[in-house]
Amino acid sequence: MDAEEPINISAFNISQMAKSGSLREALNSALKRIRDGEKDNEFLYVAATIAYDLGDMQKAEQLVRLLLVSDPEQINGWLLYGKIYNRRNDTIRYGYCLNRAEEISPAIAELNLHTIARNLDQVKSDVANGIARETNFETATYADICVAQGYYNKALKIYSDLTEKDPANSEYAMKIEEIKKKMSKHD
Fold this sequence. Notes:
The protein is mostly helical and 187 residues long. It is built from eleven helices and no strands. Helix 4 packs antiparallel against helix 5 (75-87).
């Protein structure tokens, strides 16, 4: 980690650092902010996501648990928790986590997550056949849910990723600007 690292590096910037390939450095930055007493749950979520991406399921699970103790209604945490259990082939807990996220925000049903969680026969078949499936929850609808809950950093990251995948979509750029305005109002 650089000695010149800004003290107030945001969760979004750490997420972008990870996205650029500096996963270990990004995780260390997030963990440093958490150890230094950062109260924003977004840092716990970002650190857990990076740990997950690094394949450190134990660290990811530990961070998600801290996040959910701090904010039991954190949809991102429940979805990530579900992904952790999915990777471990624990279909019962995977389904529970997705159901919990749907209870918090019924709009998640629009993303068809309930179908994924409840289709345990398919999951069991995949496990038996050694097929690992990753579910991508990061859609515009999910980003809008994050905005509604006040998780602007996560929404900004999702719209940035969507813009990268579809640069011609001008709606994403408008949403990014709206989120940045909302973030500046809360500073």
